[in-house]
Amino acid sequence: MTKGNINVSVENIFPLIKKFLYSDHEIFLRELISNATDATLKLKHLTNIGDAKVEYGNPQIEVKIDKKGKKLHIIDQGLGMTSEEVEKYINQIAFSGAEEFLDKYKDSGKDSGIIGHFGLGFYSAFMVAEKVEIITKSFKDEPAAHWTCDGSPEFTLEPHDKTERGTEIILHIAEDSTEFLEEARINDLLTKYNKFMPIPIKFGTKEVNVALPEDAPEDAKPEKKTVDNIINNPNPAWTKQPADLEDENYKSFYRELYPMQFEEPLFHIHLNVDYPFNLTGILYFPKMTNDLNIQKDKIQLYQNQVFVTDNVEGIVPEFLTMLRGVIDSPDIPLNVSRSYLQADGAVKKISSYITRKVADKLKSLFNENREDFEAKWNDIKIVIEYGMLSEDKFFEKADAFALYPTVDGTHYTYEELFNKIKANQTDKDGKLVILYASNEDAQHSYIEAAKTKGYEVLLLDSPIVSHLMQKLESTKENITFTRVDADHVDNLIKKEDTKISKLTEEQKTELETLLKEVIPAEKFSVQLETMDSESTPFMITQPEFMRRMKEMQQTGGGM
Ligand code: ADP
Ligand code: MG
Q1: Is the torsion defined by CA of 348, 349, 353, 359 positive or negative?
Q2: Which of 109, 248, 415, 549 could tie 105 with a disulfide, CB 3.0–4.6 Å?
Q3: Per UniProt, where does ATP bind (predicted)?
Q4: Alpha-carbon span 72 to 75, nearest angstrom
């Protein structure tokens, strides 16, 4: 047996590790399973290229709880390590990696919320274990090795009689971490971090029904059999080629991602790029409501099929955080703060790539099946309008497919609308006046009045529409949005066209005097002449700018 000292410069790194990542203790399991996965994939590679002359087989990773012994086992059938390799990779490299990591991030990391996502590796086991053993047998023809360390810089290394290839890590769970001996807790962790890792992970067994033979009698009871409980799907949809997937595959992957979500997504976008950065993923457009406080944090970020976080702020543009799905990229730096992320060149490129892909997909949906696109418009407009407001690049692209529905249910693109109304909807200064209603019922009579005059009236009712109108007014030349009940709709309405009120002059004067008493003149104006209907003898209008100012004050803070 060898006894030795891990070469430590800090007096004792283990208490530091433990204290440091307090809130992130649970990541130890992901780290150990990542190592087991790496070891298995390395062996696969070596057998493929002929450098390892062993049978690769169908390796699994197993996680086992020994509640009585207070131990947690992580067992793989990967390439294993010789004693020299344990000495080198565990005592020296893993250690210096952990030390370097701590050194670098112990001050900055705490509040960034992202630290601990990667980097601490094998030594993160000491966050939850008072003693760690490694029993490992290399695929090379050498005896197995047994390494033990109790969280001090001292370790022992001796031969072991293990004969199967691979590595078993045994964690002697510390008194304050016994939650990690609970089946439910481990199951949650495995589901959270390892649900899509590339090697099958076994956690216990489960009972399943054996399929009955065709000719079985109707009252035959299905037999049960016990099978391995594999917690992951090693080949998730996003790792496949879009050409190999049907619409149904995307839908079932959506259900796999969100088992509690019963509504189907409207459509998906498969991301797949390997230059100048690596990124794969699938984004889904769920049905959106007009509620801006829609739940975000629904896109999951993975790194080589290992779950990292469901907070992708800074990586995808804000307006797309309303989408769902997964992004997998080894090129996103994870041990850094959000503000650093946003400034990172690679991350910027990723963000604009995603924006472009989403815009392109929307464009092709629009081109390929406009009817369907129009039918979905109400459920997706909030994302598109928000994107047009916040990302100029997106605005440029979305201009071709953003829709402006009218109160009659026609959907115009901006260009179509422009061509339709340019001849007869200008004010006296030659400005194009786009009329819109925000509430069909409340503004009904105004809408009808405008329609009688042959004007198009849009129905714009999303909560950010006043911002979008302002954006359009500042981007497009010489246009103005005017709500149908605003006072200067008057300017449009040519006097000779107007229907004359049925009220007598006397009645009008009477009514006007009365109304002026109750309605503050600086806020509203009263219109009597233009109305002909009995049910609506007069209109009260409000200057457009005043109403909009009020609206912007209401929604402005949240944007
Ligand atoms: P990293 O995974 O980033 O290299 P770790 O601290 O997680 O850092 O692991 C250090 C090294 O220990 C690995 O690079 C690998 O060589 C070795 N190792 C860890 N776990 C295993 C395992 N299950 N099988 C084989 N080698 C392993
Ligand atoms: Mg590792």
Answers
A1: positive
A2: 109
A3: 31, 35, 76, 81, 96-97, 167, 338
A4: 10
